[in-house]
Write a structure and sequence with these properties.
By secondary structure, the chain is α/β, with parallel strands linked by helices. The protein has one domain (3-323): TIM Barrel, CATH 3.20.20.100. The chain is 47% helix and 15% strand. It has 13 helices and 10 strands. The strands form 2 sheets. Strands 3-4-5-6-7-8-9-10 form an 8-stranded parallel β-barrel, surrounded by 6 helices. A two-stranded antiparallel ribbon has the order 1-2. A hairpin with a 6-residue loop joins β1 and β2 (12-14). The longest helix is centred in the middle third of the chain and has 20 residues, at 143-162. The radius of gyration is 19 Å and the shape is globular.
Length: 324
């Protein structure tokens, strides 16, 4: 494993972080038991992963992460999120209700008040059975929520940091609803985050021209998410992404471009599309840590191996740039 200092914070992390809040939720969404999820987390630690990222008491991942990491808590970093939807105590208990509340809050620009944010953080600490958090993010803030989030929630996080309950303040974007990275651009301009979490992958490289330079100029750490989601799990997914995404191609052309790209990967010894995706993001200048999300130990090992491989060959990098 390789390790890196995260921006201007005093945190040193593995370059790979295990995410517990994605579609898989450590395998819980695909049939894994609690024991299997705990074993996956401990396998990640054995592989050298020291950063573990969760959703902030939504869906039960925090309790599992806390239990799995209890024996090694002093050796790892926990990154989690603040749910900004109103009534977070209620919606955090029910995943479907949380989704509805979060989407409504994003649409209407609603943000929980300071007391609710503080309560949410306290419940998160209890769920993790921890007395501190290494990174606490304002989560999935859309542009319409940004001003209220800074007014109401940010002072809570700043007080928690002053009190020693968190070590770094972060903010994550809603990648699918803020494709221009407006939220992170504003946050970096206001210069309050120690860490930002941005979407970046082979099909959407827009953070390269906005988020990454601004973060580098301010010494802000960057966690990269969405390395493999949205069309990069399989050849068929890539065809659909090229056919339906920005600059959509006719399906025949999308299939031909995908087939040519897959042949190039094979020619250069790149074993899979997901391997290429993780390897690509890991070596993007300006990204400190990339998130991987899985419930399968074999996939976890493959993803870590991809991230720790060297940069992709130049012909493959040129082909990535030509994909979209």
């Amino acid at each position: 494993m390789e390790y890196v200092k995260i921006g201007r914070s005093d945190l040193f992390s593995s370059v790979v972080a295990l995410g517990g809040g994605g579609p898989s939720r450590l395998g819980l969404s695909t049939g894994s038991t609690r024991g299997e999820a705990i074993a996956l987390i401990r396998r990640a630690f054995d592989l050298g992963i020291t950063m573990f990222d969760s959703k902030g008491i939504i869906g039960g991942a925090d309790e599992i992460i806390g239990e799995a990491l209890r024996p090694v808590r002093q050796q790892v970093l926990i990154s989690t999120k603040v749910n900004l939807a109103p009534a977070p105590g209620l919606v955090s208990r029910y995943r479907m209700l949380h989704r509805v509340a979060a989407r409504t809050a994003e649409t209407l620009g609603l943000v929980a008040d300071a007391a609710a944010v503080r309560s949410h953080v306290e419940r998160t600490l209890r769920a993790l059975a921890s007395d501190r958090l290494e990174v606490l993010h304002l989560h999935a803030v859309v542009p319409g929520q940004y001003a209220k989030a800074v007014e109401r929630a940010l002072p809570v996080l700043q007080r928690l940091k002053a009190d020693g309950l968190i070590r770094a303040i972060g903010i994550t974007e809603s990648f699918t609803r803020d494709p221009g990275h407006e939220t992170l651009t504003r946050a970096l301009g206001d210069d309050f985050p120690d860490v930002v979490m941005t979407g970046f992958n082979m099909l959407n490289r827009s953070a390269r021209s906005s988020v990454l330079p601004a973060a580098a100029n301010r010494g802000v750490g960057v966690m990269g998410m969405f390395a493999v989601r949205q069309g990069l799990r399989s050849e068929a997914d890539l065809v659909r992404a090229l056919h339906r995404g920005p600059g959509a191609l006719p399906v025949d052309e999308a299939a031909q471009r995908t087939a040519a790209f897959m042949r190039l990967l094979r020619d250069w010894g790149v074993p899979s599309l997901s391997h290429a995706a993780y390897r690509y993001c890991r070596h993007e200048p300006g990204i400190d840590v990339i998130l991987v999300g899985t419930g399968n130990p074999t996939h976890l090992e493959q993803n870590v191996a991809a991230a720790l491989a060297g940069p992709l060959p130049e012909p493959v990098l040129r082909a990535v740039e030509a994909l979209t």
